[in-house]
Amino acid sequence: MLVRLLLCVMFCVVHGFILISSGLANAVEVRRPNIVVIMPDDQGYGDHGVTGNSILRTPNIDALAQESASMSDFYVCPVCSPTRASLMTGRYHYRTRVVDTFKGRSMMEPEEVTIAEILQGAGYATGIFGKWHLGDSYPLRPDDQGFDESYIHRGGGLAQPSEPIENNRRYTNPILFENGKQIDTEGYCTDLYFDAAIQFIDRCKKEGKPFFVYLPTNAPHGPFHDVPQELYEYYKTVDLKSIMVGKRGNVDQLARIAAMIENVDQNIGKLDRHLKEQGLFDNTMVVYLVDNGPNSMRFAGPFRGMKTMVHEGGIRSPLFVRWPDRIRPGTVSDRIAAHIDLLPTIADAAGVDVPDEANVDGRSLLPLLEGQTPEWPDRHIVLQVHRGDEPVRYHHMAVRNQRWKLVHPSGFGQEVMPEEVPFELYDMNSDQGETANLAETKPEKLKAMLKAYDAWFDDVSTTRTDNYAPPRMVIGSDKEAVTALTLQDWRVSNSVGWGESGVWLVSVERPATFDAELVYSQPVGPMDLTLSIGRVTRKATLEEGQKRLVISGISVPQGDAEVQVRSSIKGRKGDPYHVILSRVD
To answer: Could you tell me which residue, 129 or 500, shows the higher pLDDT?
Structure first.
């Protein structure tokens, strides 16, 4: 019997099968699934027909939901980069050095083990199509973190300071990056991501390889000036005020958001049709979620709040998982779950062991999605993020166990925690809308939830030495001969918005000589400049009418350094849009 089982295991490994077993006598062969993870940006829980929205048209997502198993109480972070870090690693984002969404704090520690690396090591072809937002330069790019194929924009989105200046904020015909190389495109960004993913799937089928496709679209994230026109015209005729919350909403903006959401839905339908045509539908596990709450105060199901908030509307996401070969449609689990659970769930579905060094915080949800009733101890899930360089204890956080939720909504946008913001405690069994604060009437429960939070905060804050030190970009490497330094990753302190007069933290891989191109968004000369790379400085003058300046032949030693541009014009006008370093030796 044992010999027969070992031969079966060897056959399965060779031929792309996994072995599901509840004992030697019950071993069953199951083909390794293809895996697709779809995650729109800023599309909230309530932006789907299946979650109660009667205005937005999402027939394909609704159909996906009907064909899926789901987790009814699924959580993400209130903003994007933290959710993405946890999805990729199965760990709380504070362990990964991702603290915020910009100013160098959305860069993920390159030593983290990603789901792409795990699946790649198990023979999967891996591809990302859309938004990464965990680092734009080596060794932080998706190309360096386990993805064979990358087709992405840089930074937090198109029309942000990380994009090439010549893109001019376009969502249509955008400049994108394919496997690290800048490319021109034709089409709307979301259409392009799905088309590229379909082409990748076709190549994988031809090569006989299982695939992992990560489709995090930047839509419906703003700005909203460039949206699918036909859908926008339709939503201008619809009564959108009925799904707006409060009096500050912008009807035209919501029409534009709705157009982007329906376009995402149309692309999901296109992908599903292609999977069916190629005979891949039944053995492809499709995972659908969103990255945070909606990007305006609008319908959020039974919940309150929006993106950046730690009330339910800011951190609840649907989780639909369709895998016809293995998961029964309509299966629903009410166990609390979160982004940290996706890596172990996907690895479990693929029959791949999660390496010990990954040290994941999450659990595999696969038994629950299959309708099993495994032993499932209660736990505390913590969601916390706010502006700044390091997390502050209790600042803008939520703690959830199966019944109770503790909230301290002190404000995402403030680096310093305001005083006198009260704690809130809710019984989620009876109060999903968070309307009755029980913090004063349930002091022992409040104390217990705070104790759980304190243990979590102490734990994640001591993950590694210099736990919240930002990662450094590596320049001069053979892996990336040209590095664009942008406002996305520069380090500033006490500055509003993107800041001014920042520095970039880099590591020079070996002694190297660079040409530095300084790119400005508008002519601001004449202006005297000093470029510093560590202790090496070079002076130059930006002439009147000039927007680009190249400083050639800058030789710098190996080691850590700061890159900075100082100018005779103070403030943002004197700061370059990009500094592009090209190794020339």
So the answer is: 129
Q: State the pLDDT at residue 204.
A: 98
- DSSP annotation of 300 reads B
What ranges make up the beta strands (E) of 352-481? 381-384, 397-400, 404-408, 424-427, 473-475
234 φ/ψ angles, rounded to the nearest 5 degrees: -65, -50
Strand partners, 122: none
What does residue 17 show for φ and ψ, rounded to 5 degrees?
Answer: -105, 160
Describe the chain by its helix, strand, coil percentages, rounded to 5: 25, 25, 50
Owner of token pair 């690693």: 89
Give the DSSP letter string of 155-167: TT-TTSTTS-GGG
Sheet containing strand 284-288, edge to edge, reads 181-183, 176-178, 149-153, 125-131, 211-215, 34-38, 284-288, 320-322, 69-71, 332-333
Percent of all residues in the chain with a pLDDT value above 70, rounded to a whole number: 95
| Pairing between β-strand 316-317 and β-strand 74-75 as defined by DSSP bridges | antiparallel
Instruction: Write down the pLDDT at residue 12.
Output: 47
Separation CA 214–CA 343 (nearest Å): 12
pLDDT grade, residue 30 (50/70/90)?
low
pLDDT score for 16: 55
434: left (phi over 0), alpha (psi -120 to 50) or beta: left
Cα 83 to Cα 383: distance, rounded to the nearest angstrom: 10
Query: What does DSSP assign to residue 10?
Result: H
How many Å from the N-terminal Cα to the C-terminal Cα in the chain? 63
CB 411 within 8 A of CB 385: no
0.90 exceeded by pTM = yes
Strand-strand pairing, 381-384 and 397-400: antiparallel
Number of alpha helices (DSSP H) and beta strands (DSSP E) in the chain: 11, 28
DSSP codes, 326-387: T--TT-EE-S-EEGGGHHHHHHHHHT-PPPGGG-------HHHHTT---------EEEE--S
Q: Which of these, 488, 533, 564, lies nearest to 104 by C-alpha position? A: 488
Q: Distance between CA atoms of 41 and 215, rounded to whole angstroms?
A: 10
Per-residue burial over 165-190, b if 16 or more Cβ lie within 10 Å, else e, is bebeebbbebbbbeeeeeeebeebbb
Instruction: Give the domains, in start order, of the chain with CATH numbers.
Output: 1-31 (no CATH), 33-369 (3.40.720.10), 381-460 (3.30.1120.10), 473-583 (2.60.120.260)
Cα–Cα distance for residue pair 397/407, rounded to 1 Å: 6
Please say whether the beta carbons of 88 and 94 come within 8 A: no
- What pLDDT, in 10s, does the model give residues 31-78? 899 999 999 999 999 999 999 999 999 999 999 999 999 999 999 999
